[in-house]
Amino acid sequence: xxxxxxxxxxxIAAGMFLLMSCQGNRSTKKHISQSIAxxxxxxxxxxxxxxxxxxxxxxxxxxxxxxxxxxxxxxELTGADxxxxxxxxxxxxxxxxEMLATVREEHEQGTMPEFTTDLRDTKKYDVxxxxxxxxxxxxxxxxxxFFRKFNLNGKILIPFTTHEGSGxxxxxxxxxNAYLDATILDxxxxxxxEARTPQAHDAIRQWLESLSFNANVSRTSADAVTGATRLHKxxxxxxxxxxxxxxxxxKATYRxxxxxxxxxxxxxxxxxxxxxxxxxxxxxxxxxxxxGDHYAWGETAPKKSYTESNYAYLxxxxxxxxxxxxxxxxxxxxxxxxxxxxxxxxxxxxRNCGHEFVTINGIKGHLLKAGNGNLLFIPGNGYVYDEAxxxxxxxxxxxxxxxxxxxxxxxxLPENSWGQSNYxxxxxxxxxxxxxxxxxxxxxxxxxx
Length: 449
Known about the structure:
alpha/beta, six-stranded mixed β-sheet, disordered N terminus
């Protein structure tokens, strides 16, 4: 009997030790949901958030920001530790209009505002709820500063936001870009004026009860809710082959009739000075002037016909950013770090390079020249609807970034300009893969004359 009592005491003590080891800055008043507690069993949750008091949209001047209410509800229901991200800049004293102008300027300039927090170490936490208002389409820039300081890779991250019409914005994409090896679960958003109501408690509870905190399932599922599950895959033979550059002299004909012999990479990858290596060829092509294959957004194999009726993800949410995921045809085909460029990566390339519309080997396209002198030819490839190829002399290339529930962003390259627009995700569009510029590239020269 004494032995049983002793063992029982030891088990209880061990359980109390584990509980205390996960406790930090927790609220003293708890109404933990048993079902949520069961799903979090074995995990150590944390809530971090930024919230702005002062003059708010609709609710007026408030002493506590909208996001703070949601953060505290999540803490109450999960028993998580909670820490606030506090901006050094005084956003609260600004009027609502002044705040909008300030955060727009921060967004456009990529400002990294200073912050303070009592949080010192995140090692013991494996489930982290990350909350903030949606400012200019995503988390406030001060939270970007937090992401830069704290390494949350390998953890389960769950976004939550308050807004007045933006939903989660691009917060899931921001988290995936900041932490490539984290698992991003489906987030929660609520309008700011509703965050203070009793109904918010029930909505937050229902959302939490719907979550699965099994990281292994989330990271390997081919049908994840957010599509933000990173695909871990070694380079395929095609991906490996693209680490060995082939260069050649090619003849380019300009619109004014001039001809020029150009030395350029014709297979492999090209450093265009933006921190990436751009594939010299389209996905499915063996030479720069060949159009390659067309893909519906999120599908990983080309097909004969592209219509709404045969699109695999019609009316389905597969994520805000599908780069590096199971829905990324470049990642699936090439492996390693190869992926579909995001909207921003395309924009950076096109904005920072010189453009000439030329003809190479009978194919019209854009010849890009980087500041470092490297050349990249992007051929006209057209788009495919049903079985018909539209405007084959113009370039159409997917970005990994979603535009809305039915469209995704496309880089459009007509003869006289370039642009970025949105197209139906079911349409057949080309892909130009990229990878991080952190590898050594072997080079050999071909004689194509």
